[in-house]
Amino acid sequence: MNSIHFYKYQGTGNDFVIMDNREGQYNWLTDEQVNELCDRRFGIGADGLMLLNKSEDYDFAMKYYNADGRESSMCGNGGRCLAAFAHKMGVGDGNLYFIAVDGEHAATMDGDSWVNLKMQQVDFVEHGPLYYYLNTGSPHFVKYVEDVQAVDVFNEGRGIRYNDRFAADGTNVNFVQHFENGIFVRTYERGVEDETYSCGTGVTAAALTFAGQEEKEYVVPVQTLGGQLEVRFTKTGERSFDNIWLCGPATLVFEGDINVK
User: Which of 90, 138, 147, 217 makes a 20 to 30 Å CA pair with 7?
Assistant: First the structure.
């Protein structure tokens, strides 16, 4: 029986189990154990699990697992929560630089619980007749709808995620509606295999597709089931974007200890 000291964080309802692994003390975790810790009935409950790892070249390294226990692609809200956790642990001076599976990221703190996370630039967006498809650190299918609250996100999202094109590697699926001066986004996440309250890379993908034709700086307010985010970016070409920042809250919910077999 191994004991884990964990922290539970959430960013607009996207929730994560986090451990300070800078000394490598949790390197023994298996995919099955990660899955059990994320289970909402028999574990702590979370959309994913992250390890704060030591890095020689950066303030820290981010290791992210989906709730199914498998290491996954970039998670935007996870990156924001891990930056807030690193700040709580005394890492950096409010300006953080870290390495994740998709490359380098910068993060800045506004207070203790608002995090601005710099995302990777996007150089291509596939635009079909009824959809957009792009990678913002994770792959995202974006579909605009008239009434996002009426969408059956689980079944429609699952149908797209497991269709012939995407079944092998999976994709996240976002349903988007124009909302006030921004957008409302609901997301089906692969690896969780369900709708989540928010998805940072999905919100980012949707915000980029919301930009007009003009090449300029944009600020897009985004509503999710779990709260409000903001995406700032510069459109640099017809389908290219740079200086992309995902901004929003990231807060500690609780911490505790759990024994893992």
Answer: 138
